[in-house]
Amino acid sequence: xxxxxxxxxxxxxxxxxxxxxxxxxxxxxxxxxxxxxxxxxxxxxxxxxxxxxxxxxxxxxxxxxxxxxxxxxxxxxxxxxxxxxxxxxxxxxxxxxxxxxxxxxxxxxxxxxxxxxxxxxxxxxxxxxxxxxxxxxxxxxxxxxxxxxxxxxxxxxxxxxxxxxxxxxxxxxxxxxxxxxxxxxxxxxxxxxxxxxxxxxxxxxxxxxxxxxxxxxxxxxxxxxxxxxxxxxxxxxxxxxxxxxxxxxxxxxxxxxxxxxxxxxxxxxxxxxxxxxxxxxxxxxxxxxxxxxxxxxxxxxxxxxxxxxxxxxxxxxxxxxxxxxxxxxxxxxxxxxxx
Length: 339
What we know:
Elements: E1 35-40, E2 47-51, H1 54-63, E3 69-70, E4 74-76, E5 79-86, E6 98-105, E7 116-127, E8 132-138, E9 144-147, E10 152-160, H2 161-165, E11 177-185, E12 192-199, E13 206-210, E14 221-222, E15 226-228, E16 231-238, E17 249-256, E18 267-275, E19 284-292, E20 298-306, H3 307-310, E21 318-319, E22 322-338
Antiparallel strand pairs: 1-8, 2-11, 3-5, 4-5, 5-6, 6-10, 7-8, 7-9, 7-11, 12-22, 13-22, 14-16, 15-16, 16-17, 17-20, 18-19, 18-22, 21-22
């Protein structure tokens, strides 16, 4: 049986990102977690923290027996944050001889009981000689979880003081340095969809009787809507053919009646179309499959049945000037949205 349809599929290759080569020396491990670093020219999106007199600040903190300096609060992703700088390294993390830098969530007391914030964040050190940023990120998954028992994450061994103090590396120039942070909060909207494959039983088909068929004076006609495999469908008949190329034939198609509800999805359906032989049971039918969408609502078969066979009384397609057309959705995909 001839059918007019074309389905094309394309496949897009997926490539894994390649590791960038490091430009400056850095320790191979971190006291908190694995570290991934890279360089970029774009500055931090959310906060920049500049220290004009790094050595003096370090001395002041040492004399006052204060281990860290906290930045002012800043907002990102709907939460308040601070950067905690340890100029001589965070001792409890065994980071003596390193610069330590941490991201801490602020105003914890204002958060609801049992709060939890999942984020991806980057820490930056500005290379003043090359005008780019050395970035640091958790290398395990790229995402960390802040909660009541863990209110900060960061890098105990961000850079060794030997490398940091070496002016040729560009991090500390004229006793000045610049740090930065980007925080992307992962918030679930609750929106999504569930796609499933729905099968219909063999007894689940729609029968359409076109009475007084010879008197039909219309280019095409449609059946009433019927529901099968979770979707609404219609059958479509062109009594004298769909086009000039199919004159002399009856054309038959199937329509997805509620395609507007699919935006922007599409569904796949396996179906059977049939014109019944009401005398001998030698029906003309086709079983096929197509993708349906708002732009492909109907698949039609232009030369489904020749008009000569249709009007041949011995073939049994027209009995008492009544044509019986059947449509059946055997299987289709279904999309259920939730929020």
